[in-house]
Design goal:
Radius of gyration: 29 Å
Number of strands: 0
Structural class: mainly alpha
Shape: rod-shaped
Largest sheet: none
Strand content: under 5%
Mean pLDDT: 76
Oligomer: single chain
Distance between the termini: 92 Å
């Protein structure tokens, strides 16, 4: 009887360790936010003209 429990326990342990190694490999990558500092090119590219100077 204890031999059966030993085999079942070993199988359960193998299953848990197998899942623990497979699950992280298929997980989505973590979100990496864009740095707050922008380059001079981005500042010029997205610069809105001053509306007060138009009138």
């Amino acid at each position: 009887m204890s031999k059966i429990f030993g085999i079942i326990g070993a199988g359960a342990l193998t299953l848990v360790m197998g899942l623990a190694s497979v699950v992280p490999s298929v997980a989505a990558p973590l979100y990496q936010p864009k740095p707050a500092a922008s380059t001079a090119i981005e500042m010029v590219q997205y610069h809105q003209p001053d509306r007060r100077a138009l009138g």
